[in-house]
Amino acid sequence: MGGLTSIMDTSLSGMYLARLALQTVSHNIANANTPGFSRQEVLVTARLPQQLAYGSLGRGAQVDQIRRLTDSFLQQKQRTQEARLASYEQVDSSLGEIEAIFGSVSNDHLGTSLGAFFNAWSDLATPPINSSLKQAVVSSAQSLVTDVRATASSLDDLEQSMNDGLSRELDNLNSLLTQVGDLNRQILYVESSSGTANDLRDQRESLILEVSKLTKVSVLERDDGTVDLVLKGRTVVTRAEVELLALRRDATASGETASVVTADGQVPVTLDEGKLQGMITARDEHIREARARLDDLAVSLIERVNSLHTQGRTASSSGILFFTGDSASTLALNTAIVNDFDLVATSRSGLEGDNDIAQEIAALASQPLAGEGSQSLMDRYNALIVDMASQRSSFQFLLENQQNVVDTLAGRLDSIRGVSLDEEGANLVRYQNAYEAAARVVTAASDMFQTLIDMV
Fold first, then answer.
1. CA 247 – CA 170 distance, rounded (Å)
2. Edge-first strand listing for the sheet containing 227-231
3. Spatial separation of the C-alpha atoms in residues 37 and 34, rounded to whole Å
């Protein structure tokens, strides 16, 4: 009787394991298209055998664990490369917006306005001089002022947009960190009383990947299954404890700036790569560099034109400023000239037919400026456009290469943890046959029991 019981128990263990494996296959198939899901498999070991005088008698099989297939090394590499990709994407996007504000090398509205301004002076320098030519100079100057100030305003708006975007993305980061802390708590609860919380770990890994797109993060796993998240040496998640981050806004000479700090102690937090760092780099380096170079151009224009125009004489004035202001955003045409075109000076003598001032102002477009890199005003502006196009091209190259790196890592990870429906279909048949075979053994053992009972 004991032998029949042993046969029944061994067969039932086989049925149980086959059923568990079928349930795991079903779970894999159901989540084949679930983002971040890692394929699972049942690991089986043999039960301890029964020791008899003539040897060991097997007692069936048992579940060792339901394993989540993944690669922690590749996951960390993926997080690092995703952070770099997000940083490049943000800088490239910002450079594209700056390029759109200024225009391209072949379609440059501000350069066109600057050229039209000097062309108007060139026309005025060609006798005979008349009021309509002076009016054309004033009109071209007004158009140039409008374009320069609009460009400066667009750069200011872009910087403010970056600061607002930082605030939104930091809120998103805090939300992700809070969710990771909550999943740490759930995983600790589940794994302290049973096996590995595979699905919860998948959810947590997906959240950490989203964190890495915002900022580079280091992940330290504890023995209890929870993870600590570290940003550039600062731990922001410890088990279920989360240190939230905030923006500290400070007024500067160029406007408002924002830096990341801890929400309670106002301690500065350094970010390394990721979208947040990309926004800070775009704001502090590229946008502000573009504005500084635009300001330099505007100041040179104001100083050079005024230094010549104030030497001029007209029938009703002498030594009058042509432009006012001290930056791109404050550049303006002298209101006196706006109200009276005849105040535009063409010569130092003020005599009819004399045009030396007009010629020298027109020549500013192409003549090198002393002490400013031997570039003319037009050369300096064209250099700005070319440099921006070159920066954009460089980042597009970096972005393309980095995308390839990320895609390669994602493909390697998917080959490990991704669900293959063909493979799961084959497993389905295999475990179904195993279940049916074990069931037939149970049926045979039951028949043997009945035969034994009938004999009694």
1. 8
2. 218-221, 227-231, 234-238, 241-242
3. 6
Q: In whole angstroms, give the CA distance from residue 429 to residue 432.
A: 5
Cα(288)–Cα(254) distance, integer angstroms? 9
Q: How many CB atoms are closer than 10 A to CB 313?
A: 18
Q: What letter does residue 73 receive in the DSSP assignment?
A: H
Q: Are 63 and 44 in contact (CB under 8 A)?
A: yes
Give residue 252's Cα distance to chain centre: 26
What is the token pair recorded at 65?
């664990």
Distance separating alpha carbons of residues 30 and 210, to the nearest angstrom? 24
Cα distance from N-terminal residue to C-terminal residue, the chain:
12
| Burial category of 332 from C-beta neighbours within 10 Å (exposed 0-12, middle 13-18, buried 19 and up) | middle
Counting every residue, how long is the chain?
A: 456
CA distance 74 to 421: 23
Q: pLDDT averaged over consecutive 10-residue blocks of the chain (456 residues)?
A: 74 91 95 94 88 80 90 94 95 92 74 92 84 92 94 93 90 95 95 86 96 94 92 89 83 62 73 90 91 93 94 86 94 94 88 86 83 75 88 91 95 93 94 91 81 75
- SS3 at position 368: coil
User: Is residue 145 exposed (0-12), middle (13-18) or buried (19+ Cβ within 10 Å)?
Assistant: buried
pTM of the model: 0.85
Comparing CA positions, the residue from 367, 365, 369, 323 lying closest to residue 344 is: 323
Report the candidate in 201, 172, 190, 224 with the shortest Cα–Cα distance to residue 69.
Answer: 201
Burial of 208 (0-12, 13-18, 19+ CB in 10 A): buried
Rounded to 10°, the helix 2-30/421-455 angle is 160
Eight-state DSSP code of residue 369 = P
Q: What is the DSSP string of 233-279?
A: TEEEEETTEE--EEEEEEEETTEEEEEEEETTT--B----SHHHHHH
Strand partners, 332: 324
